[in-house]
Amino acid sequence: MSDFGGMEDLLQDFLTESSELLSEVDNKLVELEKRPNDRALLNDIFRGFHTIKGGAGFLNVDPMVSLCHRTENLFDKLRNGELSLTPEIMDAILAATGVVRDMFGAMSQSRQPAPADQHLLQLLDNVLEGRATHAEPPAQAAEPVTIDVTPTEVRPPMPQPGSPDWNQLYDGLLGTNTAQAAPPAATPSATVPAYEAPQTHTIPVMPVQTPVSPKAVVQDPMTLLKPAPAATLNKPATTGQQLSAPETTIRIDTVRLDQVLNLSGEIGLTKNRLTTLRSDIMSGKIDGPTLKSLDEAIGQLDLLVGDLQNAVMKTRMQPIGRLFQKYPRLARDLARQLGKDVELVISGEETELDKTMLEDLNDPLVHLVRNAVDHGIETTEERQATGKSSKAIVELSATQVGDHILIEITDDGRGMRPDVIRRKAVEKGLIDIETANSLDDKQSLQLIFMPGFSTKDQISNVSGRGVGMDVVKTNIQRLNGRIDIQSVVGEGSRFTISLPLTLAILPVLVVKVCEQPFAVPLAMVREIITIRQEQVQEVSGRATIVVRDEILSVRSLAHLIGWQETQLPQFGVLMQSAEHSFILAVDSFVGRDDVVIKPLQNIRPRGIAGATLSGDGSIVLVLDMEDLLSSTHADSSAIMTSRLVEQL
């Protein structure tokens, strides 16, 4: 039973607007700490809290009204000069905003929030009365501080490429007999483990479907292509914070909706034209002018559908600043908790990204920002001893490059030492000494993404358990992205995340092997080459080809999926995966396409991201090359080398 009977719609509007307003207040509070005498900033903060208090009063949320009233009085005394801002007073204010956010969580579940802790209320009263205070840094008032992970090893076993279950799935999808058309390999492969502008509308967001864990093999291909619930990324655990369901609505500028409406009308007119031409052709009128009109109408429809598709995709795009605005408060609280002086500089907030990707990107960015403040930045004493400014800078930026978004987290801290990372990985038993000695510095930096890796000897409430960076990389890869590292000892580190603009549509290259089509992500494709057998050389037991003085390994797609080749591959797709390049040998090509991936309900073999429909209506499996390559190595040393050197 809801505690807000008859006011659910008003409640949702209040939560949406007030949550954004509170995030703005948090960021302005961080700015206020740098400019405590900025009256304009104080007035903005005062108005923000007053608006939240007014909405809470209308909904009869007395605990929030009481807390906001005390905090509002505190802001009033600050702007009137009756009080001077100190770190302790700021801690009390931020603790209050954190409790208000917790109250939002309770209200999102249609429950009246509990009153604020009496200690916090007394603390605010003491500040208002001018009595000395010493508040603890609000370590839990910001974003979640840990990432709770379910290890990937506990997921249900997946059918492997080349196994009977994998071929059975393929037969079920395509109605073929792979055992006869392309016999599987005899030996199965081993596996590796601010308020919005008033001219907006709010509409439901349809989540982008992502593959789910396998439970059973389903033979009906139409059943397999039914939409499945989107997979949920590992969410951080919180303390004393109510967890609410993910947002299922999105605000859209009416200009974008008008564009969709106009295009829909144009398509309707073109449809009427095609209907008339169809009637003419059915009646036997197939002269030159009629066929020319048909061709023009189809061409017009093609352009309009493309424009409509782009316009609809833009309705899902949201400024990444809505995500970034959470992090100044996060960095400030953690820096104060650790006794460091850190400033988070944000740029590129106007860059747009798919709404569903914004939600799933939050946890990786939370960990990377925290990691920069905790691991990357030195203490004030260490920075001064090396001649650096006592104030450290962490930069968070976003830019659009082509059809991808680049997000960078940069710090001017101590940097990472590859030799120390290798030694720690050996000490923790993650790699052996022989493997460690074979890694160069760039490959050594990638070791931090291994489960269980940590450079901290002591476990704290911030870090040291070796849980986090591996989850960051896993979650980025689930978004069809990649993460790279650059670091200079004594100067700092840079983490670069590359993501597609949207997950709803994926550009692919459709190839054929054993007469069956497969789709590979176009983002990994560098170029297409012809394979001549005299060019193939064997190096360390692996087929290679030299392309512009670069030695590249050749991987047969047929072998990767466990089939026997029916002919020698004629073509190669030069592919780039993280820091490693290789050539994927295939029989032929179908061409480039933009596809909508549908997950395979209840089943996902390794190496398969989902399925799509081709232009002729046939089903095409979309390959997950990272997963496919990592699942095809036979022994543990080869598996480890592949994960570290090939970054797959």
TrEMBL record:
GO terms for molecular function: phosphorelay sensor kinase activity. GO terms for cellular component: cytoplasm. Keywords: Kinase, Phosphoprotein, Transferase, Two-component regulatory system. Signal peptide: none annotated. Residues 3-107 form the HPt domain. Involved in the transmission of sensory signals from the chemoreceptors to the flagellar motors. CheA is autophosphorylated; it can transfer its phosphate group to either CheB or CheY. This is Chemotaxis protein CheA. It comes from Chitinilyticum piscinae.
